[in-house]
Design brief:
Helix content: 25-40%
Mean pLDDT: 90
Strand order of the largest sheet: 3-2-4-1-10-9-11-15
Number of helices: 18
Shape: globular
Strand content: 15-25%
Largest sheet: 8 strands, antiparallel
Length: 609
């Protein structure tokens, strides 16, 4: 992985390939490359940013009417030019690939025995040589790709060009996202719609098992049974403006400040209807939600923390038993399936492989009542689910999730209240109270954003530290987890989070004057407990940084720093308190000089295990 783009046109496609790869930079990568057909296969690769690869392409005056490009996030093999994509076999076949080929060792041994020489450490080179082997058996490129992918085990999205097929390319998808962009006399492929927005908004999302033949005059798609199929054409509503920085220094900063708008857009339907209706989740939602007796949430990373927060809402508001599992762990253990359990998957991209595979596993156990919470329309996880609620965060470019997380939270809160209503636990008065809280939330978020200058000052105390500790209680414990994750992701400071009551059971041993301790301390039922936990920290010389509410009775003193959000927002308090920890991580990273939008070793859309 991480980004794919390709084009077949009557014009030089190199500028389009490079622009497309630039649009995919947000996904995280460590090298980039392009290959085009121009009498033979011309290829340029470089470790580092797309701009470095572009300089080499310009120097070599690279041109071609058919081409593919890739940004790589290293999995098999180190960050070297020889491991960068595209990979070429015998100067005749070029391939770009996202995903993991699980049987690459077996195929590598087989191909070596046939005389193929490997120049990289990647699993991808296996694909190139395997396709070449079949073209050498007098197969055309389409047939060779079909034969090759039948031999592959794992997950992949690939695009292939060949000297023997100078006017078209072939692509295939299994488990990793891939789409076709439709132009006028030219057509495109990409792993993300952002890569083709400058040339088309008409896109086809390929299904698992699909193989596509892409020509200037049109495209042909074959399904996993080798039958020609017609896939729906979608008009993308992603804005090019959303892919631009505007007045902000970084996409992460921009996206933090876009949260009032994103939350308004996500809650708009419920607020406009003045009702938590099952229709928010799809036409069949009433039947599904009326017949579930528990909830299982499957997610990864930040989305998992959203699920942990939702557990508090679902059990306290809807009175429904809820479990939350890390997607990559769930499918590798023996679980007790329950056909009446609602399976909720949470994914920003809708293509997270661990979450997609967990969903498939749940369905294989007979758990068919499924709901996706997702930010990308028509992505794989929503298509595989009975119900869907789209968060309307808009394009999120920064690798560290911000607005996608908070919109997931309001979507999950909406689910909790809707289930409560379906189960007869919601009075009309309480429903209106929850709607009012949602309606006022964006304004409260904006007030929290206004705390940025104070938080910027706090960041100076973190930038020279090696470790940090985050504490929270109840439904704010997951926000402490999210705060620690954000600090780790973009500043590379080691951070941990604990329920504050667990301090005395071990973590207190870590506390000293060099360990800043962040406390999420809203004015709720657990406030006095949190204050006691804070005293445990101060008694060991720890320095406290407390995010409190305006009506919380905290006083600053030596070693105790307090920032107050404007007011306590009740049950939605976890969403409000997410904003300060995001800003703290952002400004700490700025002071450390790290790459805020593209943190090392991380990718935006994780489509490998």
């Amino acid at each position: 992985m991480c980004g794919i783009v390709g084009a077949v046109a009557s014009r030089n496609v190199v500028p389009m390939l490079i622009e497309g790869l630039s649009r995919l930079e947000y996904r995280g990568y460590d090298s980039a490359g392009v290959a085009v057909l121009d009498g033979d296969i011309k290829r340029v690769r470089a470790v580092g940013r797309v701009a470095e690869m572009q300089s080499k392409a310009d120097a070599e005056k690279l041109t071609g009417f058919v081409g593919i490009g890739h940004t790589r996030w290293a999995t098999h093999g180190g960050v070297t030019e020889s491991n960068a994509h595209p990979h070429v076999s015998r100067s005749e076949i070029a391939v770009v690939h996202n995903g993991i080929i699980e049987n690459h060792d077996e195929q590598r041994d087989h191909l070596k025995a046939l005389g193929y020489v490997f120049e990289s450490q990647t699993d991808t080179e296996v694909i190139a040589h395997l396709i070449h082997y079949y073209t050498a058996q007098d197969m055309d490129l389409l047939a060779a790709v079909k034969s090759a992918v039948a031999k592959l085990t794992g997950a992949f999205a690939i695009s292939v060009i060949s000297l023997k097929a100078p006017d078209y390319m072939v692509c295939a998808r299994l488990g990793c996202p891939l789409l076709i962009g439709l132009g006028e006399g030219e057509n495109f492929i990409a792993s993300d719609v952002s890569a083709v927005l400058s040339v088309t908004r008409r896109v086809i999302y390929l299904e698992d098992g699909d193989v596509g033949e892409i020509r200037r005059e049109g495209v042909t798609i074959f399904d996993r049974n080798d039958a020609i199929v017609t896939r729906k054409v979608h008009m993308s509503d992603v804005s090019l403006a959303s892919m631009e920085l505007g007045p902000y220094a970084h996409f992460m900063q921009k996206e933090i400040h876009e949260q009032p708008r994103a939350l308004t857009d996500t809650t708009e339907a419920a607020i406009d209807d003045a009702s938590f209706s099952t229709a928010l989740f799809g036409a069949d939602a009433a039947d599904v939600l009326n017949n579930v007796d528990s909830v299982l949430i499957l997610a990864a990373g930040t989305s998992y923390y959203a699920g942990l927060t939702a557990k508090y809402w679902l059990e306290s508001i809807a009175r429904i038993t809820t479990n939350v599992e890390i997607a990559s762990e769930y499918r590798y253990r023996q679980s007790v399936p329950n056909p009446k359990q609602l399976i909720v998957t949470i994914s920003q991209s809708g293509e997270t492989l661990d979450t997609m595979e967990a969903l498939k596993h749940a369905k294989s156990l007979g758990q068919e009542q499924t709901l996706a919470i997702c930010n990308v329309q028509e992505s794989a996880i929503p298509r595989a689910s009975k119900l869907v609620l789209y968060t309307r965060a808009g394009a999120e470019i920064g690798v560290a999730s911000t607005k996608a997380f908070t919109t997931q939270l309001v979507a999950l809160f909406t689910l909790a209240v809707t289930l409560a209503k379906q189960r007869g636990l919601l009075t009309p008065e309480k429903e209106q109270s929850y709607l009012d809280e949602l309606r006022h939330l964006p304004g409260s978020i904006q007030h929290a954003l206004n705390l940025e200058p104070q938080i910027r000052e706090w960041a100076k105390a973190f930038a020279n530290k090696q470790n940090a500790l985050f504490l929270g209680r109840g439904m704010h414990y997951p926000i402490a987890l999210e705060g620690a994750l954000k600090l780790k992701e973009i500043s590379y400071i080691h951070a941990e989070a604990y329920p504050a009551g667990e301090l005395k059971h071990g973590p207190l041993a870590l506390v000293d004057k060099d360990m800043p301790v962040v406390v999420i301390a809203p004015n709720d039922a657990l406030l006095e407990k949190v204050k006691s936990n804070m005293q445990e920290v101060r008694a060991r010389g720890g320095e406290l940084f407390v995010f409190a509410d305006l009506d919380s009775h905290f006083t600053e003193s030596e070693g105790v720093h307090v920032i107050r959000t404007p007011r306590h927002v009740g049950v939605l308090s976890p969403i409000l308190h997410t904003i300060p920890v995001q800003l703290l991580a952002y400004h700490t990273a700025l002071l450390k000089g790290t790459d805020v939008d593209k943190p090392r070793n991380l990718a935006k859309s994780v489509t490998v295990e």
